[in-house]
Amino acid sequence: MYEPDSTGRCPHCRIGVRFLKAENVDWDGARYGGISTTSLASGDEDCVTTYSSLCPECHKPIIVFQRRKKGWSKPLEERVVYPLNVARIAPSEVPPSIREDFIEAAAVVPISEKASAALSRRCLQNLLTDQGYTKRDLSDQIDDALRDLPKRIGENIDIIRNIGNFAAHPMKHQTTGLIVDVEPEEADWNLDVLEELFEYYYVQPKRSEERRKKLDEKLKSIGKPPIRKP
Questions:
Q1: Could you give the 3-state DSSP secondary structure of residue 203?
Q2: Could you tell me the pTM of the whole model?
Q3: What average pLDDT does this structure show over 122-147?
Q4: Beta 7-9 vs 61-69: how paired, if at all?
Q5: Is 63 strand, coil or helix?
Q6: Are strands 46-54 and 20-21 parallel, antiparallel or unpaired?
Q7: For 181-220, b where at least 16 C-beta lie within 10 A, e where not — what string?
């Protein structure tokens, strides 16, 4: 997930980096450094592995717990325990109800990816409804939006249906808040796509409007008419 020498986005600063090995990280009264493994109980086959990494940009640590069977390479459970909340902020231009769902979906990723994916699907459906795509099923709303979105963004939003496993969970089409199993990386991918849609639907139009207003003010100051709207 965030192993030393792996690449990814820092959960603190959201910058793409190659994580460093963290030594002597203090967290919750304990000290962590590198990788350590501890048996859960005497004779128990399960064990817990902790490892810590460091972001080379913001210099903040990331600490991950894993639970696995002894001798198994694939963990049964993996969870970021610090930071608890991923640094994702919805722009102020986004409507409050959509922004609140997004922030909550980002906050619960380390605790429950299933809950995060459900919240982000609901957030996506509310966003598309706000943009005039009002069909009942999220899958149908995505189909309608694909006709209008730039290809790059359209391909990314369509991936939500693929990694979201809509075929196996058809109720996702209608009950977007349904808690179901999620594919690896689904929760984070949903949030990434929502950030792209926020920029496209809310931030860029607002910036363009502000630029037009400033230009109109300049034109008015020299006695010329404002820009004609298309």
A1: helix
A2: 0.65
A3: 91
A4: unpaired
A5: strand
A6: antiparallel
A7: ebeeebbbbbbbbbbebbbebbbeeeeeeeeeeeeeeeee
Nearest-angstrom CA–CA distance, 150 and 84: 34
Identity at 199, one-letter amino acid code: E
The helix or strand, by DSSP H or E, that contains position 52, with its residue range, turns out to be: strand 46-54
Which of these, 131, 186, 136, 195, lies nearest to 159 by C-alpha position?
186
pLDDT in tens, 82-96: 887 666 788 899 999
Nearest-CA neighbor of 179 among 119, 91, 95? 119
User: Which residues contact residue 119 at a Cβ distance below 8 angstroms, ignoring those fewer than 6 apart?
Assistant: 101, 102, 104, 105, 108, 177
Can you give the residue ranges of every domain in the chain? 7-82, 96-211
Q: Give buried/exposed letters for 112-123 (b at 16+ CB in 10 A, else e).
A: ebbbbbbbbbbb
